[in-house]
């Protein structure tokens, strides 16, 4: 299966950061702040975050903030959204630069998107999804401002999205999907509400996501994809059931999706690489305790040392 081409992946991520006008960058224009979070977190897991100019990144992140509402857009001048706002906060935390942020302004923006039933809209246009519950809860917890929302109602809403198979969907009655399960289990973990999860039932559903090739899929009958090495494995880690899958086979699947020549990781073997799947692969290997990588926190999706600095000042 070969080893992790750590140095090649570092070079790949640095090269994507620099290329601002090629096709992939064009497609990603509106998602740039998410892409920056995935790329920078990967560099940090690979212990190479010093390779980027932190002042340059931090000032670009700050230029994505909407001065009126306080939320962040995906790029300079773009509309604010909860997901972009979470990425902005995560990037600032990777560089330990929360000092530059008006924390109450940002957290008021996030809290203002909570609805009467406890759910969250992603932005002023109102789409409701448990992804946004996660973004809000994760972001406010990182900013030490969870008291600005009705956390009890937020938890009740997430629990109302739980299905008979133990999984969670995007809205009440929505089909279970590993991505949504990450969001719901992550938000429940952060709020200390994991007692709402039936660990054995959900663990069973999640470990059934492992396919013959060793990779994980997002829901029944789908193909394995490296991104589920993050969505499924982080969920299994939070409910303490990682040992229910074959970890060696999963590591081999991820390592097989590397571009060994030019760096980067793809969704499945021999496909084109991208920054997202490079993160998902490296983060999955980190959860599998692959040698040399920093450990990642499965709920906050940040390196454990960063999370410890936030909550314990270490
Ligand atoms: C900070 C880690 C972090 C996340 C932020 C936005 C968000 C919160 C989470 C997104 C969770 C989610 C719904 C992920 C799933 C993405 C995905 C690959 C969807 C496609 O699913 P299918 O089942 O297709 O339609 P596949 O490709 O699996 O066949
Ligand atoms: Zn994928």
UniProtKB/TrEMBL annotation:
One annotated GO molecular function: metal ion binding
Residues in Prenyltransferase alpha-alpha toroid domain copies: 4-301
Enzyme class: transferase
Protein's recorded name: Geranylgeranyl transferase type-2 subunit beta
Protein function: Required for male fertility and root tip growth. Catalyzes the transfer of a geranylgeranyl moiety from geranylgeranyl diphosphate to both cysteines of proteins with the C-terminal sequence -XXCC, -XCXC and -CCXX.
Gene coding for it: LOC109723870
Keyword Transferase: yes
Subunit structure: Heterotrimer composed of the alpha subunit RGTA, the beta subunit RGTB and REP; within this trimer, RGTA and RGTB form the catalytic component, while REP mediates peptide substrate binding.
């Amino acid at each position: 299966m070969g080893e992790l081409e750590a140095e090649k992946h570092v070079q790949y991520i640095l090269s994507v950061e620099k290329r601002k006008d090629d096709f992939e960058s064009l497609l990603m224009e509106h998602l740039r702040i998410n892409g920056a979070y995935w790329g920078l977190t990967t560099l940090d897991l690979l212990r190479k975050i010093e390779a980027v100019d932190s002042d340059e990144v931090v000032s670009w992140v700050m230029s994505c903030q909407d001065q009126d509402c306080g939320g962040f857009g995906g790029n300079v001048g773009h509309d604010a959204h909860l997901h972009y706002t979470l990425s902005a906060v995560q990037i600032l935390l990777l560089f330990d630069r929360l000092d530059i942020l008006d924390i109450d302004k940002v957290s008021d923006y996030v809290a203002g998107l909570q609805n009467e039933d406890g759910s969250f809209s992603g932005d002023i246009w109102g789409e409701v999804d448990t992804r946004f519950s996660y973004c809000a809860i994760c972001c406010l917890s990182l900013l030490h401002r969870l008291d600005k929302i009705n956390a009890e109602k937020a938890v009740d809403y997430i629990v109302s999205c739980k299905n008979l198979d133990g999984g969670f969907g995007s809205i009440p009655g929505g089909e279970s999907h590993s991505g949504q399960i990450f969001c719901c289990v992550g938000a429940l973990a952060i709020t200390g509400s994991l007692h709402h999860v039936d660990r054995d039932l959900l663990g069973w559903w999640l470990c059934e996501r492992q396919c013959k090739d060793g990779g994980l899929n997002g829901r029944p009958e789908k193909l394995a994809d490296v991104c589920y090495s993050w969505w499924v494995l982080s969920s299994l880690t939070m409910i303490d059931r990682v040992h229910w899958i074959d970890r060696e086979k999963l590591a081999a699947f991820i390592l097989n999706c590397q571009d060994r020549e030019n760096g980067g990781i793809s969704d499945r073997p021999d496909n084109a690489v991208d920054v997202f799947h490079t993160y998902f692969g490296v983060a999955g290997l980190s959860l599998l305790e692959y040698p040399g990588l920093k450990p990642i926190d499965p709920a906050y999706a940040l390196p454990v040392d960063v999370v410890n600095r936030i909550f314990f000042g270490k």
